[in-house]
Amino acid sequence: MSISIHAVSVPVFVNSLRNMSVWLDKAASEKPEAELLLGRLAPDMRALPAQYQMASDSAKNAVARIAGIEAPAMPDVEATFAELKERCARTIAFVEGIDPAALASGAEREVELKFPNGMGYRFSGQAYLTGFALPNFFFHVTTAYAILRSAGVSLGKPDFLQHLGPPNIQASE
After folding, report:
1. What does R_g of the chain's alpha carbons equal in angstroms?
2. Dihedral sign, Cα of residue 113, residue 90, residue 76, residue 17
């Protein structure tokens, strides 16, 4: 049995972006937004808004590159929780709108990733998704979670995995 490119990308991106959006609601109810927006894990790391922006970019660019289409431009201008939540919503809408057939046909498409310094990588679509896009996406998702958690927001693993909902196996009585 094989699993589709769509199944290992779109729902994964959407679930995590929705979770990230809800984290901001919890954060806003517990801590001053202005303080949290400045949060970072180390002096040389980017602050919370950038982690949301880069998670968004990772998701939308991944599906666009694999499908062979252009990702929507989303300038990194978000400066409030409401704007970060809107970015998550726009990214979700784009990712959900990708035709599963376009992703399937992109599994072997060459994806070239170039960095500003001119270096980069060349992958097949499938190798790009599994070897770069998903790990990069989860780096930024996890960093956003860790920034909020380290600032004292009462997030836990159930918040990270919120998309699962309540357990579907109940303890026997």
Report:
1. 17
2. negative
